[in-house]
Design brief:
This protein is of the alpha/beta class. It contains 17 helices and twelve strands. The protein binds pyridoxal-5'-phosphate.
Length: about 425
């Protein structure tokens, strides 16, 4: 599969059935696996042999789908998690511990912001947030001796800022730490962060990858490029013996290609247990089989809606990196030549009241706390996720009361635009 194009990988990478085996990925709906001797099983526990013994750690269905994701992102190893939140937590906590520090873009998903700023702070892990637009000097200044990771989102949810991945990777590597990039919005069909220097890629597969609003899930993909041993003092978890696994040194035994995901599975999945169910992995795989067909349609609809909105007198401002007028247009051209995603945000003249009445009149776009599935949906943060804030507080947070985030689905763009036009009038 290595030399195949992205669409072929979406359809066929990962599971490769042998003679007479099921054509579709089998759902191995079993918590446990049977062995003839204790010695056989003991080898698995010691990570001496590879195989399955308990689904909290590994399951064949999940592994087939993770292998597809590794192929799609151009990584060497991958794992599925129960949600995008679990993926980002695991990716960070796999290289951090109490006393560590993270440098993160401030323009990230609210759940991830909370995870890093509040919950991980309680574990003694501190963070410095930087603007996604910061200069190299400003980024350098955020690093400390105890910095262990840098984090950002390719296209941020919901701000739709575009990360300068090459710049962030250069700075992270100058400080001997990996760059972790959440690539949920563009998916590997539209951007592969590893090709631009990212070391670890994460996903909320709940969004476009599933694409049908059916299963919550997450994934972590390792580029296999970060040299843990070259920065051994910073990453003792990967470069020193793991007492909970008979003194295995992950970076020695599994090399650059396998150390990160093996440790993340053997320790974090073992102890935190955020495994994706094999059923959900199967649903995710169905979504992946058409990802390369769906993404161009989401982009086509997103761009058409953004261009339409830009011309309407009732609309104060439109954010969509594919628009020439957008602040991130140049970065989008570089990192997202095929387009980014179907999410557009715009601000109505007339604030909260205008947004409320606009949304009430929509017929095709449903009001949902969700993005990135086949059905278009929209959200006004001021009257939903951020309703505890006053108009002044919203303005200060960069989320004006009249802001609406619309996720363009797979309907015909003429119908979506007609629905929006009707609601505006
Ligand atoms: C939704 C989302 C998450 C969280 O994923 P869940 O699957 O909801 O846990 C993380 N990052 C981004 C960019 C997201 O859009």
């Amino acid at each position: 599969m290595e030399n195949k194009k992205i669409g072929t990988k979406c359809v066929q990478a990962g599971y490769r059935p042998g003679n007479g085996e099921p054509r579709q990925v089998p759902i191995i709906q079993s918590t446990t696996f049977k062995y003839d001797t204790s010695e056989d099983m003991g080898k698995l526990f010691d990570l001496e042999a590879s195989g399955y013994f308990y689904t909290r750690l590994q399951n064949p269905t999940n592994d087939y789908v993770a292998a597809k994701l590794a192929a799609l992102e151009g990584g060497t190893a991958a794992m599925l998690t129960s949600s995008g939140q679990a993926a980002n937590f695991f990716a960070l906590f796999n290289v951090c511990e109490c006393g560590s520090h993270i440098v993160a873009s401030s323009s990230i998903y609210g759940g991830t912001f909370n995870l890093i700023a509040v919950t991980m702070a309680k574990m003694g892990i501190e963070v410095t947030f930087v603007s996604p637009d910061a200069s190299e000097e400003e980024l350098n200044a955020a690093f400390k001796d105890n910095t262990r990771a840098m984090f950002g989102e390719t296209i941020a949810n919901p701000a739709l800022t575009v990360l300068d991945i090459e710049k962030f990777a250069k700075v992270a590597h100058a400080h001997g730490v990996p760059l972790i990039v959440d690539n949920t919005f563009p998916t590997p069909v539209n951007c592969r962060p590893i090709e631009w220097g990212a070391d670890i890629v994460t996903h909320s597969t709940t969004k476009y990858m599933d694409g049908h609003g059916a299963a919550v899930g997450g994934a972590i993909i390792d580029s296999g490029k970060f040299d843990w041993m070259a920065h051994a003092d910073k990453f003792p978890g990967l470069t020193q013996p793991d007492d909970s696994y008979h003194g295995i040194v992950y970076a020695e035994k599994f090399g650059k290609e396998g150390a990160f995901i093996t440790k993340c599975t053997a320790q974090l999945m073992r102890d935190f247990g955020c495994i994706q169910s094999p059923q959900n992995a199967f649903i995710l795989n169905l979504g992946l089989e058409s990802l390369h067909v769906r993404m161009p349609k989401h982009v086509e609809n997103g761009l058409a809606v953004a261009q339409f909105l830009e011309k309407q007198p009732q609309v104060k401002k439109v954010s969509y990196p594919g628009l020439e007028s957008d602040k991130y247009y140049e970065l989008a051209k570089k990192y997202l030549p095929k387009g980014g995603c179907g999410v557009v945000s715009f601000e109505l003249e007339g604030g909260r009241a205008a947004a409320e009445s606009f949304m009430k009149k929509l017929r095709l776009c449903a009001i949902e706390t969700h993005v990135a599935d086949a059905r278009s949906c929209c959200l006004n943060p001021a009257t939903s996720t951020h309703r505890q804030l006053t108009d002044e507080q919203l303005e200060a947070a960069g989320i004006p009361a009249g802001l609406i985030r619309i996720s363009c689905g797979l309907e015909d763009k003429e119908d979506l635009i007609a629905d929006i036009q009707n609601a505006l009038s």
